Amino acid sequence: MEMESFPELTTNSLRLRELREDDAPVLLSIFSNPHTMKYYGSEQMSGLEEVEGMLMSFKKGFEQKQAMRFGIEVRERGELIGTCGFHNWTKRVNRIEMGYELKQAEEGKGYMTEALSAVIPFAFQQLDMNRIGALIHPNNAPSRKLITKLGFQQEGLLRDYVLAGGEYMNLIMYSLLKSEWGSSRP
Known about the structure:
By secondary structure, the protein is α+β, with helices and mostly antiparallel strands. It has helices spanning 24-31, 34-37, 48-63, 111-126, 141-149, 178-184; strands at 9-10, 14-18, 68-74, 79-90, 95-102, 131-136, 153-164, 167-177. 32% of the residues lie in helices and 34% in strands.
């Protein structure tokens, strides 16, 4: 599928949209929060320059059809509360990986379930993916619970897979296949 412009998805309470430069302060508050970044697999951000670099890489990833990151906005408030989307887009084998994060104050309210319930069918139907993977830290119980609720299956442990904060971290690989998706929706 060829997309010229970044898609926008809407759910009952959310608008999933392209990230903009004016989102940088909110993104900095998320990506500099030790709680949010604890299991993220990369370093906390410390300044707007880093966030602007991340925004540029998201834009470039979309232009090159290698990644797609949506801003998660609460429609009623018009407020950005997190991001979700895809990276490691391997078109040759119709495979993609998913990532996501929310402002700490917005966790546990069902927003990420709602957002991912929109981007998963988008990946299977619009992007024609066969497999969506998710890499999650073994101690990140809320994320593991979320991904399992959405129908993902645990595949295995990737030992010392990422280096963050000077320490190697194990990650668990989860996946959802297109053939399983219809029967696993919440």
